[in-house]
Specification:
The chain has a single domain, classed as Phosphatidylinositol (PI) phosphodiesterase (TIM Barrel), CATH 3.20.20.190. It is built from ten helices and twelve strands. The chain is an alpha/beta fold and 287 residues long. The strands form two sheets. Strands 1, 2, 3, 4, 7, 9, 10, 11 and 12 form a nine-stranded mixed β-sheet that branches. It is globular and about 50 Å long. One of its GO terms (biological process) is lipid metabolic process.
Length: 287
């Protein structure tokens, strides 16, 4: 179904772009800002829940997108990367949904006070996709004012945009809904398909399966053209591009790769190194 909302909302739907108001230093972490600087629209916190302070560390480093892996256990959505290490106290609600709801209320309807674009919450489903998504949908509906919503052909932006990734069986129940509070993370095979940005605002794929360059030496021209073709095709349809499995060891190769991803139009850089990407993007912006 075609997106029927205005162009600005199309950008908002797919965006993980947020910002922060200027705040006293003592309040910066609580409000998710950092020295009054705006949020980083290209920054995606991969496996965010593995940091010492899930969500708050990423927001403290001004990230506009965070990723949480979920396992369906009974009627609970537990957070973790490995099923053998799940903790019943670490739920999607306790680590993400409740803190975000509290934060948005305190910040007058925004994750980052004074910035209109939503935070992206990428929910990576690790158990069977259809049943896990249906439980996720029930969880998201408990927060009626928190999430960007799709209803009968229109997108209604909210403070947080939930995007579902992981097990691909989630796609069918999502596509069947005429009203939902989540969107779908596509793959490169979705480029140019019938899936519009109102359903697939984000397209993610494995860098290592599509490109050979890892930052050492010059970027091969054929791969540069391929990357720009991918991002141009996505952006023409209001969709964003993200790659996972990019090198994430600090050093010149990683910086070279990140610079070429930005130059090629990639919308989100994937990292576990929050401070490293924050420093890189600040330096890149200044340059």
């Amino acid at each position: 179904m075609a997106l029927t909302t205005r162009r600005g909302a199309l950008t908002t739907l797919g965006a993980a772009f947020t910002g922060a108001a200027v705040l006293p230093a003592a309040r910066a972490r609580a409000a998710g800002g950092h020295r009054g600087a705006p949020p980083l629209r290209h920054a995606h916190a991969h496996n965010d829940y593995e940091h010492a302070h899930p969500l708050s560390d990423a927001l403290g480093h001004r990230f506009g997108s965070v990723e949480a892996d979920v396992f369906l256990v009974g009627d609970q959505l537990l957070i973790g990367h490995d099923a053998s290490r799940l903790d019943p106290s670490r739920t999607l609600e306790s680590l993400y949904l409740d803190p975000l709801a509290t934060r948005v209320k305190a910040n007058h309807g925004r994750v980052f006070r004074g910035w209109r674009r939503p935070l992206q919450l990428l929910v990576d489903i690790k158990t069977e996709g259809s049943s896990t998504y249906l439980e996720l949908d029930r969880h998201l509906r408990r927060y009626p004012h928190l999430f960007t919503r799709y209803a009968h052909g229109r997108v209604h932006p909210g403070p947080v945009t939930a995007v579902v990734s992981g097990d691909r069986a989630a796609r069918a129940p999502m596509a069947a809904q005429t009203e939902r509070r989540a969107f779908y993370d596509g793959r490169l095979t979705d480029l140019g398909s019938a899936a519009t940005a109102s359903f697939v605002p984000l397209i993610s794929d494995n860098w290592a399966l599509n490109f050979t360059w890892t930052g050492a030496g010059p970027f091969p021209e054929a791969e540069r053209r391929k990357l720009r073709g991918i991002t141009a095709a996505a952006h023409a349809r209001g969709q964003r591009i993200r790659f996972w499995a990019t090198p994430d060891t600090a050093g010149p190769d990683r910086d070279a790769l990140w610079a070429q991803l930005l130059a090629g139009g990639v919308d989100q850089l994937n990292t576990d190194d929050l401070a490293g990407l924050e420093s890189f993007l600040d330096a890149h912006s200044s340059a």
